[in-house]
Amino acid sequence: HLGGAFVGTAASFLLMHAPVFLAAGLLGANRILRIGSLILLVGLLLFCGDLLARDFIGSRLFPLSAPIGGTLLIAGWLAIAASALVRVRS
Question: Within 13 Å of residue 4, how many CA atoms lie on the same side as its CB?
Fold first, then answer.
């Protein structure tokens, strides 16, 4: 198997969040949901990208990329939760 200790963690994070993007694509009428999904995507790219870079390249993407990505993951989830409280205008 290719990769080190961080590959499994990154793969788990990506697999856990995949259904969110499928649901956001189906229910994407809410602007807050779309923005939250974008924030979540950027957070995943930074967090998982940093973990994968550590294993495959041997160094980080850039300093604090994993903590910034984790913070964006939290912010994205909060925005998605907030989108459930907002009515969709028809």
Answer: 11
* pLDDT per residue as tens digits for the range 3-18: 788 999 999 999 999 9
Cα–Cα nearest to 51, from 40, 59, 43: 59
In b/e form, how buried is each residue of 7-27, taking b as 16+ CB within 10 angstroms?
Answer: beebeebeeebeebeeebeee
Residue 2 amino acid letter: L
Neighbours of 46 (CB within 10 A): 22
| pTM > 0.85 | yes
Residue whose entry in the numeric block shows the structure tokens 């993407």 = 61
